[in-house]
Write a structure and sequence with these properties.
heterodimer; A: 4-stranded antiparallel beta sheet; about 35% helix; globular; B: mainly alpha; 10 helices; about 0% strand; flat
Chain lengths: ~250, ~280
């Protein structure tokens, strides 16, 4: 059996004060899989994604990402892991006053250090890589525009380009299509899945749109109150199963 | 036709019109009144007799000051330029100094809570000592002249900007910090890549306020020997050359107003672009 890209057993993680959000999660994601995390607000989707790169205190259980045991990793090992795990947040994590190219370059801050803070100081090879990442999301022509001048859908594509700048083996996305109109949302989902297939990237994305989860991902994992309550191939998921995840907290 | 008499509304006890003040309010009132009475006895308060005699003296000053004497326009302009340079260089140094201070004094960027506490304490100390006192101290330590003024303005600006910059850094959206941390960026990368670009408009706006304040301070600092136009003004007043003094006062007015207008225009421009883009 090949090594999993992500492997969690009995994971308990949550707030710094010890209150768990995840209450014993078991999950194995194979390399190249595209997995959707679905569930109501507070179910633990974001906490699960953040715990994968060590942004949440791990209270119990095992958690291995790309062969690295996250709870046991030193600060340096954790930073090295984060360098190769792309994380697409919602677009509020970008800097609206900077140019699009500038924002994308920040995906390389982990390997370039403070040299990577500006297009003027970064190595030329990194500039070219940033332009290729923008090209991949169809925004090469906007490179010199201020990010704030772009539409919400375009900004989310910039976020994706920034994650690609990390040259990731695993891509985590936290509700990447929240607050986008259906057309822009489908573009982002399609783009993310196409890139993952082309580059062999493993994707785990939190989603509220269960129809997108069914259409664009290989597998759906449902979370409810910090536990996995559904784990099936996307094609085998029925809408009533998914609706139950939300009905449980209504 | 019979009429139905409306029932009389119940009486409501509204309490006394004037309530007795609470003990803290009473103590504050008595203390304030005591200070005013003591001040009048000691000559601190402005008495009507002083006001009346002051009107005559003012008329005499204005009569002697007009028309302004432009014979020394050259030296006055040179001194004004020194004053403006003191303000600009002092503000620049102060802003540069305040950047590391503010990063250490913001909860979300400080490396350790003890460093946070120490830096906040240092900033509070810099802010609590008036710029004129810094001017006197630096005249003693580096001697008479503009250098003392520049240092006084730099220290005063570092306290002012350090506090406001730190508060703005603490307001940065945690998503921005976490977004860059998740890319493997170190603390320095997060600051230069996420925090500083986010707070830059507020930094520039605050720096413009600091420049306005420094321009006014640089005039006053000259009075304690820290160089610039203040020295010229003190000399003219002490030699009773009120027409020269008026020239200097007008020069100060023009420069201070120009700096204020420029700073306001820059702040407005930043505000407009910020509103448009966020």
């Amino acid at each position: 059996m090949s090594a999993a890209a992500i492997n969690l057993t009995g994971l308990r993680a949550g707030f710094g004060d010890g209150r768990p959000v995840l209450k014993g999660v078991d999950l194995r994601v194979e390399a190249g899989e595209v997995v959707a995390l679905v569930g109501a607000n507070g179910a633990g989707k974001t906490t699960l994604l953040r715990s994968l790169v060590g942004l949440v205190p791990i209270q119990d259980g095992t958690l291995a990402v790309d062969g690295v045991s996250v709870p046991d990793a030193s600060r340096g090992e954790l930073r090295a892991l984060r360098c190769r795990v792309g994380f697409a947040f919602q677009r509020s994590a970008l800097a609206p006053r900077l140019t699009v190219l500038h924002n994308v370059l920040h995906g390389g801050l982990g390997r370039n250090g403070v040299r990577g803070w500006s297009p003027a100081t970064v190595p030329e090879s990194e500039r070219q890589l940033a332009v290729r990442c923008l090209d991949r999301v169809g925004l090469r022509v906007t490179a010199r525009q201020r990010l704030g001048a772009l539409s919400g859908g375009q900004q989310q594509r910039v976020m994706l380009a920034r994650a690609l700048m990390q040259r990731p083996r695993i891509l985590l996305a936290d509700e990447p299509v929240a607050s986008l109109d259906p057309t822009a949302a489908q573009q982002i989902m399609r783009l993310m899945v196409e890139i993952a297939a082309d580059e062999g990237i493993t994707v785990v994305t939190a989603l509220h749109q269960i129809d997108y989860a069914q259409r664009f991902t290989d597998r759906i994992v449902g979370l409810s109150a910090g536990r996995v309550t559904l784990d099936r191939p996307a094609k085998q998921c029925e809408v009533p199963d998914l609706n139950e995840l939300y009905a449980a907290v209504a | 036709m019979s009429t139905v008499k409306a029932p009389r509304p119940p009486e409501v006890d509204l309490g006394p019109r004037w309530g007795r003040p609470s003990l803290p309010v009473f103590i504050l009132l008595v203390t304030g009144l005591g200070l005013v009475v003591h001040g009048m006895v000691q000559g601190v308060a402005v008495s009507p007799w002083t006001m009346i005699s002051g009107v005559g003296n003012t008329a005499e000053f204005v009569g002697e000051a007009f028309p302004p004497n432009l014979d020394r326009a050259g030296p006055v302009a040179a001194a004004m330029l020194v004053t403006l340079e003191m303000a600009v260089v002092g503000t620049l140094l102060g802003v540069i100094l305040s950047l590391p201070l503010s990063i250490l004094a913001a909860r979300n960027t400080t490396p350790h809570p003890l460093i946070y506490g120490a830096t906040r304490g240092l900033i509070a100390f810099l802010r609590s000592v008036p710029d004129l006192i810094w001017g006197i101290i630096f005249v003693v330590t580096v001697g008479l002249g503009p250098e003392a003024g520049v240092l006084a303005i730099a220290v005063d600006t570092a306290g002012f900007c350090g506090r406001f910059f730190a508060d703005r850094i603490e307001d940065v959206d945690p998503d921005v910090v976490e977004g860059l941390t998740s890319t493997g960026a170190g603390p320095a990368g997060v600051i230069v890549g996420g925090v500083l670009p986010t707070v830059m408009p507020a930094f520039v706006g605050t720096s413009m306020f600091a420049l306005e304040s420094a321009t006014r301070s640089s005039v006053v600092l000259g009075v304690v020997g820290a160089g610039g136009i203040g020295v010229e003004l003190t000399t003219s007043m002490q030699l009773l050359r009120y027409d020269e003094a008026l020239t200097i006062i007008l020069a100060i007015f023009i420069v201070v107003l120009a700096v204020e207008r420029l700073a306001a225009a820059i702040r407005k421009q930043i505000g407009a672009s910020t509103a448009q883009e966020f």
